[in-house]
Design goal:
Bound molecules: 2'-deoxycytidine-5'-monophosphate
Number of strands: 8
Strand content: 15-25%
Distance between the termini: 17 Å
CATH class of one domain: Alpha Beta
Largest sheet: 5 strands, parallel
Radius of gyration: 17 Å
CATH topology of one domain: Rossmann fold
Number of helices: 9
Order of helices and strands: EHEHHEEEHHEHEHHEH
Length: about 230
């Protein structure tokens, strides 16, 4: 049987994971999957369907019942893909400050993680994939052939997010972005289930002072060694 390859890229928000993973996936002809989208879609669903995000059982049930599709981009507005929640295009809605503020809580629920991890593993075991998240190398695909953990200082990551919002014409204060990011980092790395940390066999790359091209080259070099 042909050996299907999996590349796991984990790290905190705005460490460059999605940008790098997308480039690497394109070079290799692999599928690219950003698993954060799924947790964002569940969070948005809770907001839109008026499910109280503090009600763990209700959010867990919701995660089991919604449909989340990720498709090639149908609109030329800088998006990397279309995200479809129960038939509706929510590509930009899942990036809203409301979702940012609640996604850590929602993604800490066991039922939500179980439902999303099962969907992610199913994809990862049947496709050559570059999968991005917080727990890909540790929980979702511990058998991944290459594990990378991308990091950067929280200030640099907040600036990156600030620029992204700016480019979309949504001026958000840097300080607010920085604060939300610090809170999210803390929550994601101290939660009980599948917390954010580098797998012992992951290669850690600090992207603070590196360009996208430099990080991509480092990752491609690692991949070429497998
Ligand atoms: O990468 P992101 O900012 O889009 O992720 C959104 C949230 O989802 C983040 O706060 C943590 C959570 N997440 C997770 O718990 N596990 C993953 N594999 C991916 C994201």
């Amino acid at each position: 049987m042909q050996h299907i390859r999996a590349i796991a890229i984990d790290g905190p928000a705005a460490s460059g994971k999605s940008t790098i993973a997308k480039r690497v996936a394109k070079k290799l002809g692999y599928l690219y999957l950003d698993t954060g989208i799924m947790y964002r879609a569940v969070t948005l669903a809770a907001i839109v369907y008026a499910v109280n995000v503090d009600d763990e059982k209700a959010v867990n049930r919701l995660a089991e019942s919604i449909s989340i599709d990720i498709k090639p981009p149908s609109v030329d507005d800088n998006r990397q893909y279309d995200v479809i929640l129960d038939g509706k295009d929510v590509t930009w809605d899942i990036r809203s400050p409301d979702v940012n503020a609640n996604v850590s809580l929602v993604s800490s629920y066991a039922g939500v993680r179980k439902a999303m991890t099962a969907r992610q593993r199913e994809i990862g075991l049947h496709n050559p994939v570059v999968m991005v998240g917080r727990d890909i190398g540790t929980v979702v695909l511990p058998e991944a052939d290459v594990k990378i953990y991308l990091d950067a200082s929280v200030e640099e990551r907040a600036w990156r997010r600030h620029r992204e919002f700016d480019e979309r014409g949504e001026g958000l204060h840097y300080d607010r972005i920085l604060r939300t990011m610090q809170e999210r980092d803390h929550f994601d790395s101290t939660r009980e289930l599948a917390p954010l940390y580098a797998a012992p066999d992951a290669i850690i790359i600090d992207t603070t002072n590196l360009t996208i091209d430099e990080v991509t080259a480092q990752v491609m070099e690692l991949v070429s060694q497998i």
